[in-house]
Amino acid sequence: MPENPVAHFYDELADDYHLVYADWDASIRRQGDALDGLIGQDNASVLDCSCGIGTQAIGLALRGHRVIGTDLSARAAARAAREAAHRDVTLRTAAADMRRLPFPESRFDTVVCADNSLPHLLAEQDVHAALAEMRRVLRPAGLLLLSTRPYDELLRNRPASTPPQVHQPADGGERTVTFQLWHWHEDGEHYDLEHFQLLPTGGEWRVKVRRTVCWALDRDRLAGLVTDAGFVDHEWRMPHETGFFQPLLVAHAGK
User: Fold this and answer.
1) What is the rounded distance in angstroms from the CA atom of residue 236 to the CA atom of residue 147?
2) What is this structure's pTM?
3) What element of type H or E holds 220?
4) Fold of 15-152+216-253
5) 208 exposed, middle or buried (CB, 10 Å; 0-12, 13-18, 19+)?
6) 2: pLDDT confidence band, cut at 50, 70 and 90?
7) What is the mean pLDDT of residues 25-42?
8) Residues 47, 77, 165, CA angle at the centre, nearest 5°?
9) Residue 203 pLDDT > 80, yes or no?
10) For 155-168, b where at least 16 C-beta lie within 10 A, e where not — what string?
11) How many helices (H) and strands (E) does the chain have?
12) What value does the mean pLDDT take over residues 114-120?
């Protein structure tokens, strides 16, 4: 089978993913705290179905939840497990496509799909398939926490780039810089993303570039797809309310 281009993008990024954060450990704690506040129960059974290198999953494990992480990138999922062990928490991980989750029905109290992961699915049928799987593995009335970029605002002016993010190592090592260039398609909704990382090497800058494609789903459209997949009581919660860095769609599995 040919390699999935999204899996390839995140396999290539896995070793350097923490460099997109000014302070990754602080982000782990902050995002875990924000999501924990929305879960609203102790010791929940949580699936992070786009766990990456573990930013949200480790944060929730540190808050005492029983977390399993899956990701399309086997390399990212493996690093998430290692990073969790380094922080003395348990995080089981596996490589899996969110459209085909390897779990029985009604397995989890909460499913997390954060950090703009769903927009890597570029067609409505694929988004529906993923959301239907999230609904299937949730217990009745179980909680969905889904975050994307603030696409309602971004679609108004379709920016060509993101601001640079500077990572300063805690040990005082050399800084790295991350930014993205966006190339919008004619449909005005999809965009090619070029992810740049500038890494200092011997007094010079070494540049890594990785490429992928995203679908800028606005809030109303995504909420409609969530409803079609069998979720109820959906609401959008903004960063100023939750402390999470992206807008969060919060919904419950229908009974």
Assistant:
1) 9
2) 0.96
3) helix 219-228
4) Rossmann fold (3.40.50)
5) middle
6) low
7) 97
8) 100
9) yes
10) eeeeeeebeeeebe
11) 8, 11
12) 98
Residues 223-241 as b/e (b if ≥16 CB within 10 A, e otherwise) read bebbeebbbeebebbeeee
What integer pLDDT is reported at residue 215 of this predicted model? 98
pLDDT value, residue 169? 82
pLDDT grade, residue 1 (50/70/90)? very low
Task: Give 181's contacts (C-beta < 8 A, 6+ positions apart).
Answer: 160, 161, 193, 194, 196
β-sheet bridge partners, residue 182 = 193
Distance (Å, whole) CA 44 – CA 185: 41
DSSP code per residue over 46-115 = EEETT-TTSHHHHHHHHTT-EEEEEES-HHHHHHHHHHHHHTT---EEEE--TTS--S-TT-EEEEEE-T
What's the average model confidence in pLDDT over 124-149? 98
pLDDT the model gives residue 107: 97
Closest CA to 114 of 75, 60, 190, 191: 60
One-letter amino acid identity for 232? V
Domain ranges (residues) in the chain: 15-152+216-253, 154-215
